[in-house]
Amino acid sequence: MKTIGIIAEYNPFHNGHAYQIAELKRKTNADFVVIAMSGDFVQRGAPAIIDKYCRAEMALLCGADLVIELPAVWAVSSAEDFAMAGVTLFDKMGCIDGICFGAESDQLPLLKSIAGVLAEEPDIYRSALSSYLKKGLAFPAARAAALSDYFKSTGMNFLISILDTPNNILAVEYLKALKRRNSAMTPILIPRAGSGYHDTTINTPTASASAIRAAVSNVTPSDNHTFHFSSADYGSQSIHSSRPHLSEIASSMPEPAFALFQKEITSGRLMDADDFSSILGYRILSCIKKELENIYDMTPEIANRIIKNRYHFSSFTQFCAQNKSRDITYTRMNRILLHLILQMTQTDVKQYKETDYIPYLRILGFRKDASALLSALKKSAKVPVISKLSSALRTLDGTANQMLKQDIFSSELYEQQKTGKTKNRFSCPECSKEIIRV
Fold first, then answer.
1. Where do the annotations place ATP binding (predicted)?
2. Is 192 annotated as a binding residue?
3. Per-residue buried b or exposed e for 334-360, using 16+ beta carbons within 10 Å of the residue's own CB
């Protein structure tokens, strides 16, 4: 039985994701594809546009066999910690043969070489990185420049542009994590098809998630149209609508995924960072400097800046833009502010890393015909597999219990803010949510 893992956010699930799963199965003859998926908050430091259960169902309807939640603290971490946690999750499943990832580059050997340098940190690289950081470069730019210096010293050609794209960066981090863990899992690269990660316009059937989220901003809950798909081929759907932007969104997503997404659009349940503005404003006013400095990824300089600017706060996105700087990127500031909202501390993260990142495997959903995979997982898993949350809270202790409670808090806060936005009742506590079965 061959089983391959994909680390993903699916924010939301689109044709490019469906292509990756289909191409992976075609290339490897995999029997099962497992997704390690971010929960209700994502790596760029924002709430997911739709909740994790809806996104898990999208994935399962479009080719995935099992979805396991990446704990919240790692879902909103740096690329390095996000990747290490995802790789560790698959390692601890004990039944994953390989990890598949997309990238703008199709040069796996080169990406492996870069990952090797980052994993081993030779003196030439480390010295150059320190020098560039002292010059005030943000970490991603300093790292790319240091890698360029290192490869020049070895006579190899290295283009800094390779690390200019998010998927290439994550690909390198996955490879670095595999090397550091001495993992036997095989890396499988599927070159990204269609639009780039940051493209914000829908001009191909494989538009990016960023483009879909941008298009959604033009849609109102009253845009309640029915879409008719004439083909099962995800790339050639026929859609009838009087609203072009909704048609474009539909053409960029597999039919089952769009059907779920349209329900979320018409019900007004889409979320963004500014839906958490009031909570962030409260946290900024209520925290003293010592508390701020213990927030995950915070520095004394950033804490001072937040305190200095706290009376100029108006929204999450405004405050993030106001406090980013030459050496602190907008995305990193987003994550820091989200850590503040979710009460994730330096102390927590240090403890989680010391206990090897992943103390449990929480199932979000599975296909009913994947029973062989579930049976194998129960036998091979190196940590507890959670199918019933309330039972896990009673049996897990220490760090695992603490991390699980943080996951529950993050999801219930997301649900609470969504409820406030739609004026509906709180659906149900996280412990009462059912696993998705398709």
1. 7-20, 102, 167, 192
2. yes
3. bbbbbbbbbbbbeebbeebeeebbbbb
18 is in an annotated binding site: yes
Task: Tell me whether residue 7 is annotated as binding.
Answer: yes
Are 20 and 100 a contacting pair, CB within 8 Å?
Answer: yes
DSSP 103: E
Which residues, 6 or more positions from 127, have their beta carbon under 8 angstroms from its beta carbon?
none
**303-361 pLDDT, tens digit each:** 999 999 999 999 999 999 999 988 899 999 999 999 999 999 999 999 999 999 999 99
102 in a labelled binding site: yes
59 marked as part of a ligand binding site? no
Is 8 part of any known ligand binding site? yes
Q: Furthest-apart CA pair in the chain: how many Å? A: 63
The total number of structural domains that make up the chain: 1
d(CA 367, CA 58): 12
Q: Is residue 20 part of an annotated ligand binding site?
A: yes
Joined tokens for residue 251: 């053409």
411 assigned to some structural domain: no
Amino acid identity, position 243: R
Structure tokens at 58: 């999208």
346 in a known ligand binding site: no
The whole domain housing 144 covers: 121-164
151 is a domain residue? yes
Q: Read off the pLDDT of residues 192-223 as tens digits, 9 standing for 90 and up.
A: 775 555 555 666 677 889 999 988 876 655 55
Q: How far apart are CA 174 and CA 170, in angstroms?
A: 6
Single-letter amino acid, residue 127:
S
Is the residue at 269 inside a domain?
A: no
Residue with the two structure tokens 């979710």: 342
14 annotated as belonging to a binding site for a ligand: yes
**Residue 167 known to bind ligand:** yes
Give this prediction's pTM. Answer: 0.91
